[in-house]
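Aim 2 progress update. The chain analyzed this quarter is reproduced below.
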Amino acid sequence: MIYLLQYHQIAPHGNCSGTFVTPRIFENHIKELSKMEIKTLTRENYMHLLLHPPNENFVLITFDDGYENVYKYAFPILEKYGLKAAVFPITAYIGKVNLWEVPFLGRHAHLSRSQILELYKAGWIIGSHTVTHPDLRKLDEQKLKMELEISKKSLEDIIGDEIQALSYPYGLYNTKVKKAVRDAGYNIAFKSAGKLKFPLDFLEVPRRSVYISDFFIRTKLNPTYEKYYLLFERLANYFARLSPVYHTILSK
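Predicted structure tokens:
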């Protein structure tokens, strides 16, 4: 079985969105995974194993948005347990604060170029979360191409390697977006809520979102997850869309 987990911030003090997890809770999650002898997918094997699902249990731990607190708190915890992860930075905000989010969610620093490179050298998967974190469905073809291609090139310049993975902002996409993702040279794209079904469509790979309310990671691995938690995740994703609405209002 393969489990794909989606985190955002790992921070002692978060925000009212609930998309953060404290370092203590996060380490408890990792301890649980270690006790269950679940291995992490790595940069070298994750696409192969998603294409050819193994009999063993694997997990891919992912972090959207590329916050600096992932480097500060999650990275050392994962190193302690010998595990790897994936991070998807928003390239326009590398080394800056999250001005793309609504103000009441607080201001938090994003990863710097040197931190992204260090994570890559430590074996992490580096993927794109676009340039500015827009709803890709609402962009014209030129802007859509720019968001996908420029973010990919920016990250490739930092790590000196090809960027193959994308995480859709807000988990939103459509047929037009998927075609643009493929044309931009990505081999895999992750969304948020959804049931993992094989064979996978590599341009809409679902993950299980983790929130401050998830004290025990076993909850996300339980077979009843699809029945009870998918609706909650979809509601949380609607809440996240306040940020583009806020910026649309400001621009008028």
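The mean pLDDT is 89. Residues 2-251 form a domain with the TIM Barrel fold (CATH 3.20.20.370). These observations will guide the mutagenesis experiments scheduled for the next reporting period.
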